[in-house]
Specification:
The protein is an alpha+beta fold and 202 residues long. Helices cover 15% and strands 53% of the residues. The longest helix has 16 residues, at 22-37.
Length: 202
């Protein structure tokens, strides 16, 4: 919850101090990202192949919490809702902090997934995504944004049928904020004793 509150306050800071450079905003987002990722790098044992998950994600922008323009860069905080299909089947909600120029964008996103993995019992987990986008074809629409990124499971966040989960992977996609985004994912997950963070039952 503190992470979400911190993300929402970034655009407010820019509004209150219009001379703040985009470097400061980027720095805040980076600090938040590193703080969130610090406990999440729960790698698996070398002899554990894990569960390979592939599929697609359909995402819609649910709301915009705040937006500002700083030195020609657009700083945006928004919430999204997603539908997962493939190895992951369920829904997701995310809060995203995005900084964009006329040519590219960089985003950090905190998300929560509820659903199943490869036929598991229903469960939940939280993840942190980093996203790089190509906005050179905008305004979007009518143009589209192509993007790619990585996701990392927040250690200890798994509950229900996804308790003890760790791992992550890569994704790529295309879309626009009006018509939505379509993403293809390629993840590898591990569980319980297979995760270093859970090797002692934590």
């Amino acid at each position: 919850m503190k992470t979400i509150e911190s993300l929402i306050r970034v655009p407010a800071l820019v509004n209150e101090r219009p001379r703040v450079s985009v470097a400061i905003v980027t720095g805040v987002a980076l600090i938040l990202l590193l703080a969130m990722l610090a406990p999440t790098f729960a790698s698996a044992r070398a002899d554990d192949k894990g569960i390979h998950a592939t599929g697609t994600i359909s995402t819609a922008v649910a709301y915009v919490a705040g937006t500002s323009v700083v030195s020609g860069n657009t700083v945006l905080t928004r919430g999204t809702v997603s539908t997962f299909s493939g190895s992951l089947s369920g829904t997701g909600t995310s809060l995203q902090q995005r900084i964009a120029t006329a040519l590219s964008s960089e985003s950090v996103q905190y998300g929560e997934f509820t659903g199943t993995l490869a036929g598991s019992a229903k469960g939940t987990y939280a993840s942190i995504d980093t996203i790089t986008g190509d906005t050179s074809g905008c305004p979007c629409p009518p143009g589209t944004i192509t993007f790619s990124g990585t996701t990392v499971i927040v250690a200890g966040s798994g509950m229900g049928g996804l308790e003890g989960i760790c791992g992550g992977g890569t994704f790529s996609g295309v879309g626009d904020p009006v018509h939505g985004f379509t993403t293809t994912y390629d993840y590898t997950f591990h569980f319980g004793g297979s995760c270093n963070s859970n090797s002692n039952g934590d």
